[in-house]
Amino acid sequence: MADEHEAPHHIAPLSTYIFVFLALAAGTLLTWFASTIDLGWMNTPIALVIATTKATLVILFFMHLIYSTRLTWVVVIASFVWLGVLFVLTFADYLTRYWAIY
Amino acid sequence: MTALAHDDDEHVHHPFLQHQFEDLGQQHEASILGMWMFLSTEILFFGGVLCAYWIYRTIYPDAWAIGGQQQNTLAGGINTIVLIISSLTMALAVRNAQLGSRRGTVAMLIGTLFFGSVFLGVKAYEYTRHFHEGLFPGVHFTWNEVPALAPKVQLFMVFYWGLTGLHALHMVIGVGLLLWFIWRAWRGHFGPDYYGPVEVMGLYWHFVDIVWIFLFPFLYLIPHFGVHHG
Predict the structure, then answer these.
(1) Domain containing residue A98
(2) Option in A20, A62, A79 nearest B40 (CB)
(3) Cβ contact (<8 Å) for A75 and B37?
(4) pLDDT 10s digits, B35-76
(5) All domains of chain B, ordered by start, with CATH?
(6) What is the C-alpha to C-alpha distance for residues A35 and B73, in angstroms, rounded to an integer?
(7) Inter-chain touch A59–B223, beta carbons under 8 Å
(8) Same domain, yes or no, for A62 and A27?
(9) Residue A21 is assigned to a structural domain of this protein
(10) ipTM strictly over 0.95?
(11) Which candidate from B29, B81, B91 shows the least CB-CB separation from A69?
């Protein structure tokens, strides 16, 4: 009776946390290093990719999303879909305002 | 055994099991889901400010690059590492609670409190410097190294103070919550069958870390190659 809701509480090994931490530290150094080189228009996308990768690692392992229920996945993914809508629709406006002039 | 007798047996339930939940597992999943619901509002809250930031960055890329050059990259970088360390200790606090180690949980929460406080200390140092450099928006904004771009650099600094200020406010709230959690962990409230609150505290702390993971490159590492100084 009481057992049907018992969640499978997964305890991640210590090595997982250490590895994720080292990856995050490496990502921080990498994003700083990349910012010191002139890569033209690529500088910004590279910084964004590194930051997004770091955030994904934090969400999956530190925030235990990888061990969470599907319902939690839906909420997390929906959050970022709406964030995407916010950015895409706003920039669809601002980035195209002068197209009619030029 | 009658249903009534069974109910009597059930009254030896966990002291922190709220009456609306059938068991601790259900309570745990509900709290995790609820916290993520809250964090989704936080994602869109910070997302809205960041979206405005990116609009102005595309309009005034040179002013943004110069604004970024006013930042202390070393302080920002150290703070990024400090916050990542605090996230590691926070994750390990949850793990210690899962394993039933009271001392381990308390120690890791104190570690998180320590590194969180170091972050705020470095931030306070940066804020003080910016204020003396005339980089606080409003009547105190006296920075004028590139006169033609000074008003736009001031706009960048509005975003700098706004975003880092909102982030620091979240850190201060987190530090307050940690003090409460250290007390609760010390009292032995958490264990393998009841660590949900520590996990939820961790979700909050890691979210604040993620915000900074984006703020560091956005505010300190803006591409400045070939910038036209006015």
Answers:
(1) 69-102
(2) A79
(3) yes
(4) 999 999 999 999 999 999 999 999 999 999 999 999 999 999
(5) 23-220 (1.20.120.80)
(6) 11
(7) no
(8) yes
(9) yes
(10) no
(11) B29
In this prediction the pTM is 0.92
Q: Indicate whether A23 and A56 sit together in one domain.
A: yes
d(CA B165, CA B217) in angstroms, rounded, equals 16
Are A89 and A59 contained in the same domain? no
B191 bridge partner residues: B194
Closest Cα in chain B, distance from residue A87 (Å): 6
Please, how many CA atoms are within 13 Å of residue B213, restricted to the half-sphere of its CB?
29
**Tally of structural domains, chain A:** 2
Q: Which residue has 């955030």 as its token pair?
A: A55
SS3 for B161? helix
Vertex B118 angle, CA B117 and B122, to 5°: 115
Chain B residues with CB under 8 Å of A62 CB are 87-88, 90-91, 202, 206, 209
Instruction: Give B106-158 pLDDT, tens digit per residue.
Output: 999 999 999 999 999 999 999 999 999 999 999 999 999 999 999 999 999 99
User: How many C-beta neighbours within 10 Å does residue B206 have?
Assistant: 23
Q: Are residues A18 and A58 in the same domain?
A: yes
C-alpha distances (whole Å) from A95 to each of A84, B58, B59, B149, B155 are 16, 8, 9, 22, 20
Nearest to A90 among B28, B39, B55 (CB): B55
